[in-house]
Amino acid sequence: MLLCWAAPAEAANTCTISATAISFGSYDVFSATALTGTGTITFACLQSKPITVSLSAGNSGSYGTRNLNNGSNTLQYNLYTTAGLTSVWGDGTGSTAVYSDSAPPKNNVNVNVTVFANVPAGQDVVAGTYTDSIIATINF
User: Fold this and answer.
1) pLDDT mean across residues, the chain
2) I want to staple 87 with a disulfide (CB 3.0 to 4.6 A). Which of 40, 72, 97, 115 is the partner?
3) Is 69 within a domain?
4) Is the distance from CB of 19 to CB of 43 less than 8 angstroms?
């Protein structure tokens, strides 16, 4: 007689992540109005297991204020998890927040998450193109 025992198997969870760029348009140093913008992070996971999405600090190395750079010139901005610009999106350390989902859809269904951005008014900067590179990381 042959007895076979099969242990339950669990497939490894895999997730993918991508993001769209945020374009603020033209910054007017004389305007009293901040520039705002939005971007989208899209993720999809094979299994429905808790995930978090964090964002790097970018050029500035700090979540307190991120910097868009044009050579040695900087234009301050930040990224937020809410439209009210109350929670800085970072890595969860200090006073930063991350996006979390305790039960995201499974079977690689795309989930779109909005990133809210703000460039404060009143910055005296030279004309030019300012950029930053942010890394979005999904932990599962």
Assistant:
1) 92
2) 97
3) yes
4) no
